[in-house]
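Batch manifest, entry 17 of 40.
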Amino acid sequence: MAKKILIITTLIFAIKINALSAEKLFNGKDLSGWDGNPDFWSVENGVIVGETTADKKTSGNTFLIWKGGEIGDFDLTLKARVKGNNNSGIQYRSKVINAKNWSVGGYQMDMHPAPNYLGMLYEERGRGIIAQCGQRVVIDDKGKRSLKGNPDAKKKCDLSEWNEYSISASGNRLVHKINGRVTVEIEDNETSKKSSKGILALQLHAGGAMRLEVKDIVLINNKKESAKAKESAKAKESLKDHNIVLINAAQKISVPPVKWIWNSKSARTETIYARRQWTLSTPLKSSKLSITCDNGFTAFVNGQKVGSGSQWETHYEFDIKKYLHNGDNVLAVQAHNEGQSAGLAAKVKLVAANGVTRHIVSDNEWIVANKKAPGWMAPSVDTTGWKNAVVAGKMGDSPWGDVFSKKPGVPVAVAAKGAAEVHPKGFEVEKIYNVPKREQGTWVSMAVDSKGRLYCGDQGGKGIFRITLSSEEPKIEKVPVPVSGAHGLLWAFDSLYACTNGQRPGSGLYRITDTDNDDMLDKVQDMRKFAGGGEHGPHAVSLSPDGKHLYILGGNHTAVPKPESSALKMNYAEDQLLPRMPDARGHASNIRAPGGWIARTDPEGKTFHLYSAGFRNQYDIAFNRDGEMFTFDSDMEWDSGTPWYRPTRIYHVTSGSEFGWRTGTGKFPEWYPDVLPPTLDIGPGCPTGVMSGLGSKFPAKYQDAIYAFDWTYGTIYAIHLDPDGSSYQAKKEEFVTGVPLNVTDGVIGKDGNMYFAVGGRGTQSALYRVKYSGSESTVAIKTRANSETKVIETRRSLEVFHGKEVQGSIEKIWPKLSHADRFVRYAARVALEHQPVVEWQEKALKEEDPQTLLSALLALSRQGDAALKGDILNALSMLKVLEMTESQRLEALRVMGLTFIRMGEPDEETAQEIAEAISPLYPASSDAMNRELVTMLVYLKADDVLAKTLPLMNQEAAGLEEIEFDDKLLARSGQYGKSFQNQKANNPQRQQIWYAYALKNVEEGWNENLRKQFFTWFSKSRNFKGGASFGGFINNFRNESLSRIQDAKVKAEMDALSKKLVALVPEGYENARILKVGAKPDMKFDVESLEAKAGERIGIEFINNDPTGLMHNLAVCAPGSRQKVIAAALTIGPKAIEQNFVPDIPEVLASSPQVAPGRKYVLYMSVPSAPGNYPYVCTYPGHGQLMFGTLKVTN
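Output type: structure tokens
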């Protein structure tokens, strides 16, 4: 018989007006209100303890008696645990037999280790066992007993853990429950024996040593019933005796605490299934589900999907009334975690038509399982093997915080589900095979052999399958070898190569061949094992354009295989000037450089050559018609909204290239000269397959394209490349889309069509075909003429020096260190690093050409001896900064930083000299320069870095700082798109966050004013939204900054200040009229006259759009005081920078700080009550004589 799951919240009423009186029977401190033998009963740590030992036994059962008198009808709940080889119980409607000996007789609910006796009704000093666990018993007036059924299935219970026991006594009807499960139901009508009232007591059983612990004792004494009480009792009865929170509509609702639950307290990547069942028999007015999960969930009510969510830092709300019905109902949740903290939190609010409100919350009354059971989403199913949930914390606890107190995230409209759609004209897409998951798994890799047959690999353990295409149903054959989990498949050299990820026979590269010529692969050759696995493990295997080599890819959780040679120097490092902050949720916190990698090997896999590195999780590569390699690297979506977030992007992968992935905040920006920039930023997504259009029967544009697969948003992008020097410019086009369309890999078949698979992560897999039937020519495109690839050939001529020392190469390399093409310059520098340093270090230090010097010094800072530090700094000091481009200034700062990182910190005198030299450049005219300058100035402990930086933390970007998000794209994944949609509406200030990251490292120079400005920013930042780690990063910055404060009082004040939510718009100015003022190149405001009414509240939005890159501000002054204010600004003295060159005189009525180029600041003010002309002026020294205007105030 199916076990009926009757799982309802176990907390009892908070208050019941004029009807039910809730009372806590234990104060948590002492035994006031209780009477028992003090030899056995005590209070420890807020818990009642009854204990016997081998030396201290009780001769008979002894009781702790509640002195509150006799009670009749009531509801009682308490939590208890029993340790030792014994049992205990709760006496109710009982009598005191002997007060001196604390002996009691009457009804008892047993806490017994035997399953038949657990929760039973036993009558102490009376009829003995009345009903065993799992029985419904009716006793007639003569004492005859009849068994009427099984109220709930027996379930083992660990008495040594905290369990909740509840007793409901109403008239002759008695119900016992443990953890919300009914153990017995009794109707006692025996005239001479039944008890209608009596005392309460706790039992300590005679016999073996034992310890009883009891807490949270709550009694609801159902005394005289008014009309309201009878109505409430009737409503309660309609719940079929399940404990549930019942609150009258007229009362203030006391909601039980929501708990974060999981199947254990361990944190690992897994999916679990959770259920909560309850019974309804009254009409509902409304019902709302609030839910979230770290990392994602799909919720069902009575088997119907309600919704999904993937952002634990917000919660989701769903109206579930339409899914509910009278009788049994169940909320079922499929929850998944991606490692680190795991937790599911949920709350159901049920409002009955009669106004009674009930809450069902996540707690240890839920049941969970690691595997789906048949019909697991439906009510009243067999749940054998399920267990009670483990509580990981309550709502508000770290690391999640009080997620339910925040507003729900902005919903993203989910695109309508439908078939795959190909967008360019003349193309057709069709599904040709649905993969039976049970037999063939879910396909994530593809290859095509010389006969045009496809090979597809299951992500799990189902193996590899060969697909023979025909006009009929494809023929599917399993390859009879013990290989599975292939993220990469390749047919080459009459073999199938498989790059496997964690499955049989372990992560590695394998060659599968046909040894008996029966046209079926049968032998597996182990070529090389890899250390790593999972979704960031080993991935694709691809053939080189010349058909001679294999390229292998590994994500950032895969160790670089020990290569026999390397295009990169193997002394790669983290290279962080300021301490890097790891991911706030612990992701990849132990992963170090170089991150994801690409290696080249021969057909036998004998030698490995490290070709490129610095990726996060690039899954696949493809080559264009010039033989150049491209990949599609993943983003860290949890970083989104931060300055170190890098969207998914297309990289042009050249020999020796490094792309700068580092864990946490340490990712290299694209302007670093020791990395190469992306070819194209795509945006949010989950990159999987990458393929070339070469060999297709497509129009030339699409033959020439690289195709990039995005699993999350169901998109295949056609990447169109235009040569640009030795690299390319790129544009993306949506080629195929669908909802859902979890694209994983693709190939061009021998018939010229594109074939691609969908699947992965346990989703339904299928095989699709894209063919062209339009009128354009599909003649194969030709390779480009030599004149079109001349700069590419220049770069390749330098790449031959990568990984080896070549005599005479320095003379060929040196002129290219200043090449106008960044990729050529990069290749030259890498080539130089592979040559003996002693042969070129002196040449580098004496170089006079600025760009050549920078490239050479970059190589020297990475490969040279630490003794050269002073020489490198001296060479950098000879550069004429004002004659350099911004990219060269950024490069110089990076070279200086690498010199300090790799060769040692400067002494105090040198640090001060450098700080004084570069401080006048800060703030600069670009975010990139300001980011590098503040980092360097903090590192050098510059005196003025605080005063210069804090005003910048109150200035917003003049435009959108976050990358542009495509609403249509986000709509294709309601689960993942919501976080990015929230950011789009919020525009988190990435540059401000970088300043906070830098300033948290400053130990000296703080005063009260500066510290308040800094910690106030943390309050303001609470308005920003980002990815799952966004808030955690900022909070960790705050905590680290607090840890540097030695004065306990000041630390407490700043802690409180930083937690207070500060609105981005001051209170009272929500509807203020906004007046806009900008700056012109001739050092003038672009608006020289403003008008306002006396007493009006306004905001003057000053945008520093001055193309000259100068700092400006706007100060409103008293009538006739412009010259006085200008003169006072020149005489402020040492605190001029800290005061933003704004004099502290009464004539200055309101002022913005000095606003950096490209930033804006809204100055909120109440217009003076006196009419007149109020000048506004820029108070930066020397600007005020030209840069001014008038605020005309009228009645």
